[in-house]
Specification:
By secondary structure, the protein is α+β, with helices and mostly antiparallel strands. It is rod-shaped. The strands form 5 sheets. Strands 2-11-14-13-12-15 form a 6-stranded antiparallel β-barrel. The protein contains 5 helices and 21 strands. It has 4 domains: about 45-55 and about 295-375, conserved putative lor/sdh protein from methanococcus maripaludis s2 fold; about 60-65 and about 210-290, Efflux pump adaptor protein, beta barrel domain (Elongation Factor Tu (Ef-tu), domain 3); about 70-100 and about 180-210, RNA polymerase II/Efflux pump adaptor protein, barrel-sandwich hybrid domain (OB fold (Dihydrolipoamide Acetyltransferase, E2P)), CATH 2.40.50; about 100-175, Helix Hairpins (Orthogonal Bundle), CATH 1.10.287. Strand 12 and strand 13 form a beta hairpin. Helix 3 (about 105-140) runs antiparallel to helix 4 (about 145-175). The protein has helices spanning about 5-10, 15-30, 105-140, 145-175, 370-375; strands at about 40-50, 50-65, 70-75, 80-85, 90, 95-100, 180, 185-190, 200, 205-210, 215-220, 235-240, 245-255, 265-270, 280-300, 315-320, 320-325, 330-335, 335-340, 350, 365. Belongs to the membrane fusion protein (MFP) (TC 8.A.1) family. One of its GO terms (molecular function) is efflux transmembrane transporter activity. It holds the Pfam family HH_MFP_RND. This is RND family efflux transporter, MFP subunit. InterPro entries: Beta-barrel_RND_2, MdtA-like_HH, RND_pump_MFP.
Length: about 375
């Protein structure tokens, strides 16, 4: 080989030298960090924390009663001889309910009838005698004082007849009062005397309930009585009818509390379903009330995390970023809102996309449809 050939031929690197160089390039390329892309704020929709009136209902247990109940009692004293109806029987006005032993009143009536007959006979005699003495007076056979004596006797006889007639009428009434009759149509709700009992004048014997109107009698505590007024619409559920709610209204509110229970008696009238409401049934009267204004947020703003699922939270938007705070949930409201505690009025919370946010993440507030529609 000539010297010129060795000078013009290119020099090739040795394989043992090329391998370290390639490895260096690869290591340099692997250690190089790619440029970071800037993180864009996540768009969110927000809502303002505001106050809302909370409408609640409270149920009070009561009993179905008749609006008008009459305690039937005898107007005379005596021994109860018979009960002519039983509890639960429907009666008509004037129908006999019970009867007393009236033998004594019957004998007194007979006695007065006999006295009256004797008095009437005596009065007839004195009247005829007075006519004869008037003729004698006109003939100047007797003196005027003698005529006056016979005239007085005739007047006394007539007044005696009138007195006995009044006594006989009174005794006849007492004989009639020995039978207790219903004052009006209704149902016998109870008996407080049995056959053989000696009852006094005016002692209640039977309870007559009218079925034309039924009402619920309940007792309301003093902290809720200010929210109850006559004429107020209520809903009534009968325990025997399940969850079916019947229309009703408040008819009466007691002006003073019961001295023993310190509750106020309230009566609600059933406006429907009177046939299903039997006397003595248990019912619940639902009274509507408005609680003081509370803070509310959209329900979609409330979320929980996997590590603490029992603790609800909301995202607050502050200085373009979000921060989660725990809240206490309250009463659900209309319009997909819910009462919460732990926030302040006027704060901004995220109401959409809450599960995609992380603590401290930058956000961009989107305008709502209402905001875009305004000029």
């Amino acid at each position: 080989m000539s010297k010129s050939d060795s000078t013009t031929r290119p020099t090739r690197p040795c394989p043992s030298q090329a391998a370290p160089m390639l490895l260096g390039f690869l290591l340099l390329a692997g250690c190089t960090t790619p440029p970071e892309s800037p993180q864009l704020p996540r768009p969110v929709r927000v809502a303002q924390v505001g106050e809302a009136a909370v409408h609640t209902t409270a149920g009070f247990a009561g009993e179905v009663t008749a609006r008008r109940e009459t305690a039937l009692a005898f107007r005379i004293a005596g021994k109860l001889e018979a009960r002519l109806v039983e509890v639960g029987d429907r009666v008509r006005k004037g129908q006999a309910v019970a009867r007393l032993d009236a033998n004594d009143y019957r004998l007194a009536t007979q006695n007065l009838k006999a006295q009256l007959a004797a008095a009437q006979a005596e009065a007839g005699f004195t009247r005829a005698d007075l006519v004869r003495y008037r003729e004698l007076l006109d003939q100047h056979i007797i003196a005027p004082p003698e005529f006056d004596r016979h005239q007085t006797a005739d007047t006394a006889a007539k007044e005696k007849v009138a007195a006995l007639e009044a006594q006989l009428a009174q005794t006849a009434n007492q004989l009639r009062y020995s039978e207790l009759v219903a004052e009006r149509d209704g149902v016998i709700a109870g008996f407080s005397a049995e056959v053989g009992d000696v009852v006094a004048v005016g002692q209640p014997v039977a309870l007559l309930a009218q079925l034309d109107e039924k009402e619920i009698t309940l007792h309301v505590p003093e902290q809720r009585i200010a929210q109850v007024a006559p004429g107020q619409a209520v809903e009534i559920t009968l325990w025997s009818q399940g969850e079916r709610r019947l229309r009703g209204s408040i008819r009466e509110v007691a002006p003073a509390a019961d001295p023993a229970t310190r509750t106020y008696r309230v009566k609600a009238v059933l406006l429907e379903g009177r046939e299903q409401a039997l006397l003595g049934m248990t019912a619940t009267v639902w009274l509507a009330a408005t609680a003081p204004a509370a803070l509310a947020v959209p329900r979609s703003a409330v979320f929980t995390t996997h590590d603490d699922p029992q603790r609800p939270k909301v995202w607050l938007v502050e200085a373009g970023a979000v921060r989660s705070i725990p809240v206490t949930l309250g009463t659900p409201l209309d319009g997909e809102r819910i009462v919460v505690e732990g926030v302040a009025p006027g704060q901004t919370v995220v109401r959409a996309g809450v599960q995609r946010l992380i603590e401290g993440q930058a956000v961009r507030v989107l305008a709502s449809a209402n905001d875009r529609s305004q000029p």
